Amino acid sequence: MSVVDPSVNSPSVPAVDTPDLLDPAWLTAALGAPVTAVSAQRVGSGQIGTCYRLELTGEGVPPRLIAKLPAENIASRAFLSSAYRTEVRFYQDIAPTVAVRIPRCHYSDISADGTTFTLLLEDAAPSVQGDQLAGCLPGHAEAAARNLAGLHGPRWCDPTLLDLGWLGQVGQEEAELLGDAFAPAVETFIDRFPGRLAPEDAETLRDVARDVVSWAVARPERFGLVHGDYRLDNLLFPPSGDDVTAVDWQTLSLGHPLRDVAFLLGTGLDPADRAACERDVVAAYHAELLTHGVTDYSFEECFEDYRFAAVQGPLITVLGCAYGTQTDRGDEMFLTMARRSSAMIRALDSLSLI
């Protein structure tokens, strides 16, 4: 089970929103142990929020922590408040009930309006971030998929999840809105990469836009926690071994759990590599699910769900490109993810399963 400090649900001091407020007095109160000195170094790109590596001096405190804070642009925080609230509530309410490997949370709090939050997380170094552009080896993909089973398995088809109002769910109305947003986003995506997106990939994206509303509400009999953006850039890999750590929980929602597996493989591996290893990776994921108490779910059912769930790749890729901050690396990443996931949909005949 994931390790979460019990104090994250009863913080002794309120959240702060800038690194200068992470001073020794605040940290002493937040951690419940004396901190005499702290230094902060910015890490990551900070499109949704900001992250800092804290070096601590004190008694009984970790030597390093990662602090997550809201975006520097105050005007954007109200729009992002739902994502902030989701991540904080994940660490407070969900993490203690699942077995996915995550950084230990030492403190979490969020303001009533959701615009100010603080997370103090374990520094996972020397583990390093995956590279979405470079892709990964099949062994890394399998380790990441088995870690996913620790998220999905313990709360598989758990009806109490439906009572969590902060956890996003997609019904028919939400699916229609998704379709209304996705179709024009596809055309924008295609226009953004003239001559760089193969005609067959553009056609696949348009086919997905045609079917995405039906897909979003299909197969409701299997549901659970979905990370929503389980890709290599959101995974930390150790120098040796397979203890993959998952980060960035702002997109957590309810849905078909195999969406995460399909997104991982479909966007993170080149088509030939994916085709060569996907049955083995899904089999390893399925076997791990069974260890968490999932029953009446065969491997063949699991693999068909994986094929069906491949739509997650183009969906998240296109929307992320449409609404994210444009960068050269981002453009190359989204184009690569679109190529890989479109090829997956064609190879697995995914749209025939909707």
TrEMBL record:
GO terms for molecular function: transferase activity. It comes from the Bacteria. Keywords: Transferase. InterPro entries: Aminoglycoside_PTrfase, Kinase-like_dom_sf, Oxido-Kinase-like_Enzymes. Residues 40-286 form the Aminoglycoside phosphotransferase domain. This is Phosphotransferase family enzyme.
